[in-house]
Amino acid sequence: MHPLPPLNALRAFEAAARTGGFASAGRELGVTSAAVSQQVRALEDQLGKGLFVRRGNRLTLTDAGLSLYPRLGEAFAMLSEIAASASLGPARRGLIVSVAPSMMGWLLPRLAAHRAAEGGGGRVELRAEDDPVAFGREGADLRLTYDGAHYGEYRVETLFRDAAVPVVSPAVWRAAEDREGPLSSLPDAMFVHTDWGRDYASHPTWAAWMARAGLGRAVDPARGVQVSWSAHAAAAAEAGLGAALVPLSVAGPALAEGRLVSPSPVHLPLERPHVAVWPQALARRSDLAALLAHLRAG
Prior knowledge:
This protein is of the alpha/beta class. The protein has three domains: about 5-85, Winged helix-like DNA-binding domain superfamily/Winged helix DNA-binding domain (Arc Repressor Mutant, subunit A, Orthogonal Bundle); about 95-160 and about 275-295, D-Maltodextrin-Binding Protein, domain 2, CATH 3.40.190; about 165-270, 3-Layer(aba) Sandwich (D-Maltodextrin-Binding Protein, domain 2), CATH 3.40.190.10. Helix content is about 40%, strand content about 20%. It contains ten helices and twelve strands. It has helices at about 5-20, 20-30, 35-45, 65-85, 105-115, 170-175, 205-215, 230-240, 250-255, 285-295; strands spanning about 50-55, 60, 95-100, 125-130, 140-145, 155-160, 165, 190-195, 225, 245, 270, 275-280. Helix 5 (about 105-115) packs across helix 10. It is elongated.
């Protein structure tokens, strides 16, 4: 029997391959990135093969690494299932998709169409979370979010670009009797403002939209309603709280069904794209690849 490499070295390699970096693997394993790197070096020395190509902080699996990783991942998954069975605990199964809350409405119909086309498919766990999220054994397999700035060591792919549009409920718009131009007669208290939080340097504002529309009006944010998620802004507008500035990916269904109306054709493009993020080592995972292919198709 061929002598087995140390288990710690195998765990270090598997974690680094799955998460895409020594730092992220170290966080998962509770050790330093240098310790993970040292364990991987020791494994490479014992096997006599390079497992990663190192380019700064980025890792790419070699052919040897690509050959070893899936089988090693299966072995650790089997050990995890054995341990879970022995302790009567649930084994993790299926695909874990972490979604920015503003993208959940965009994802759900596409996920439904994908599963219908696949004839059902395996288990999918959806998690609505803010950035940044963790990948790894108990974290996400796939992240869908706005902008990939938090995920430099992972695969980041643009899914689509979006634009914000003003929306109001039909009842509010009929009552406004606007004769001076788009959104000129609503009082400041009838504007909904979305603050995406400190992690985003820019987000759609009424000041930016008014400037793009060529209107000289200044809307006082202190007078209106403020929310933190675009989906909540759309819901506030639909409830009659006033006009909200909402990405089309969020407002689209309500606009199509007539629950919201857009009083102006002026769109405010978002500065950054909506993206998919995943560890490089999971690129060949069939359920993840199939879902990504469907999302790319729109």
